[in-house]
Amino acid sequence: MQCFMRGGILLAALVFFTSFNVCNAAEDMRFVDAEDDTGYYVDAATVVRVSDTERDAVVAVVKATENRRYLYRTRLNPQAGTYQFVSAQVEIYDTKEVLRTTQGMDVPQKYTPASPLRSIADFIEELLTTKQQPPR
Predict the structure, then answer these.
(1) Nearest to residue 57, comparing CAs of 87, 35, 101?
(2) Is 110 part of any domain?
(3) Could you tell me if 116 and 32 are in contact, meaning their C-beta atoms sit under 8 angstroms apart?
(4) What is the dihedral of CA 66, 20, 119, 44, to 10 degrees?
(5) Beta bridge partners of 88
(6) Which residues fall within 8 angstroms of residue 92, CB to CB, at 6 or more apart?
């Protein structure tokens, strides 16, 4: 009985810690931009307005020729033109098997106007504006 109890506690802990994964199982990936064989997506289900200037979202970068998907929990500040990867996960695209998970950046970085991150920031702002409009 005690072994069964330990197994239950271990299972509960595992479920608890996997809930803090980079990306939730229920995805709502929206295409934003592409460059050569690389596609950029935003998981609309994860977009959050953190403050007047900061937004959080899971951003996916899909590299078709490598069969890889890179998921980044990202904090964007469109007004300052900065981004910060809070955490990152690399997966095999076909199977979604996680190859590795890493910590993010310590300090926000600037993005250029031509960067896909600019398109991602614009997409997130549009999405948040659309969510605020009352239903018709």
Answers:
(1) 87
(2) yes
(3) yes
(4) 110
(5) 72, 102
(6) 67, 68, 69, 99
* Residue 18 within a domain: no
Q: Which amino acid is at 54?
A: E
In angstroms, rounded to a whole number, what is the distance separating the alpha carbons of residues 5 and 7?
A: 5
Instruction: Measure the CA–CA gap between 14 and 114, rounded to whole angstroms.
Output: 41
Cα 130 from chain centre: 20
pTM for the whole structure = 0.78
Question: How many domains would you assign to the chain?
Answer: 1
What count of other Cβ atoms lies within 10 Å of the Cβ of residue 65? 8
**Does the residue 11 lie in any domain?**
no
User: Which pLDDT tens digit goes with each residue over 19-63?
Assistant: 334 444 569 999 999 999 999 999 999 999 999 999 999 999 999
User: Alpha carbon 36 to chain centroid distance?
Assistant: 21
CATH of residue 93's domain is: 2.40.128
Between vectors from CA 94 to CA 13 and to CA 36, what angle results, nearest 5°?
A: 125
- Tokens matching residue 94: 């076909």
| Residue 36 counted as domain residue | yes
